[in-house]
Amino acid sequence: MDLGTSFLLLVTGPSGAGKTSLYRGLLAEDTRLGFSVSCTTRPPRHGEVDGRDYHFVARDEFERRREAGEFVEWAEVHGRLYGTLISELEAVAREGRIPVLDIDVQGGVEVIERFGDLSVCSVFVFPPDLEVLEQRLRGRGTDDEATVSRRLANAREEIPRAEHYRYWVVNDDLERARDDLRAILRAERLRRERHARRPVD
Prior knowledge:
Strand order of the largest sheet: 2-7-1-8-9
CATH class: Alpha Beta
CATH architecture: 3-Layer(aba) Sandwich
Shape: globular
Distance between the termini: 31 Å
CATH topology: Rossmann fold
Order of helices and strands: EHEEEHEEHEHEHHEH
């Protein structure tokens, strides 16, 4: 797909880093952004809506779509399959909006490698530290002990991959971190390459 002078906003980080809270605030206030709904084989959590939060599909349906080449990227995370649909990105781009991707760290690296640094505004969200991350995961009350332990172990493997991402945000204070994300978006929109020509000749 061709993004022209636009770009994708890729927000990722370990589970529990708070990336969803960050970008949802921006989606609510900036109509130039559009959320790209991912596919997953995991069951919906309480309050999640099919087609809004995720496209919840059976594993065989996901695998059929994968074989048909419908995903920009896909990965198995915490025992479940996740993927970014090409059709979702194209639908948001057709509306003239910037697609926002909330995907896992390894999938994010695939997107960066596929589209390139200019077309992907890549943001890695860090928790303040691993102790706070563990508190957040346990505070959710949605995962059993084995799942929490697996997410913490994955976080230790994911954090070194932050080297692939252009921007780093530490989510130790939600409003400050959201301001950082706003600043990143402003900077990306002002990049020389986003302009078809010089404003003044």
